[in-house]
TrEMBL record:
The protein's name in its UniProt record: Putative methyltransferase
Ranges of residues in domain Methyltransferase type: 44-139
Transferase recorded as keyword: yes
Coiled coil (residue ranges): none
GO MF annotation list: S-adenosylmethionine-dependent methyltransferase activity
Record-stated family: Belongs to the methyltransferase superfamily.
Amino acid sequence: MASYTVTTEEDNISTLTMLGPNKEQPAFAAPGFCSSNSWGTAHDVGAGAGIAAQELAKRFNHIIVSDPNEGYVGIASERLGQFGFCKSKFAFLQEGAEESSVPSHQVDLLTICEAFHWTDVSKAMDSYARQLKPGGTLSINFYGMPQLINNESAQRVWGEMIEIWAQKLHNAGGILSRGVEHMSAGLDSVPIPDQDFEAGSKRITVDTGCKMKTLNSALSMAPKQVGQGEVMELIEDDKEWRSMRDVQWLKGFFATLLPRVGEEEIQDLWSALESFADGQNVEISWPLEQILSTKRWVGAVATYVVSLRCKNDEELMMLVLSEVSKDSGSRSRTAKDLIRRDYAPSISSTTASGRRDLTISRIRTTLLADPKPS
């Protein structure tokens, strides 16, 4: 799994860097991407063993570590306890990305590293947007299967092995089949809803000497979801994601892929790969992509909502909707749904007499207290 760290520039979250497999130093940086400028709370979604959380904990005050797998949550908790961090710094949640229990507008940075393809992507994006504070940063990171470069014959055989594994994964159905389709399309299959995120989201591709490839040409890919106004950025000729490996290392890597393809099932291919490697190490490279996006501010309501006089919550939502409509154009038809999504849970948990004041207070403090940063 990759590790992602955040560094500062004049106390702003302005540079996100990624550490790749076997890396001890940042492999690339995306400078100038400014978020809410707060080091309060980060959420590592699909955290696995907590590798990204370990890096985030060096900077953020509080880290939410979540994964749907109970085993991984336990491993992350044990691992992170070994690095001298205060136990209260972390909250561990066994839950999926799509329906998080994290309250609305609580997170300054939400990152999902090498796990987006296992989610229902649209539902997960809705959950990320709900959790992020306005101005907060969403960072989605993905590197595909390693590829063998500067040895076309060896890469052709390696590609056949990956296709066999991908077919087996697809045949398993359900979440595994969906995962293959998203892995093949890469992060282009992730939609960035403009009602939730600012224009100018970055889709970053790192030229590591290879490109993201379809895992199996016979299988379908998830459709591309790249929107207008998104910035396509290429970081050229990054050799830090390359390394020299022998065939034994490739066998070890291949054995980690689930569902497993036994070495005996593809012995002829391994023999061919060994022949093309000719006893030498082969150069491998990891195709790499990242999405960086900023949670939208709802600025038009800033000085208006605080003085609302509403008889009930439905009237409040209609008034907020009318104000948002003036500011957000085509997004106005979804504004009411967004308000319900973000505030309905807290409304339903209070007494009838307290609902209006609670709702106004939450909108004021989480969305509208500060002007949008310049």
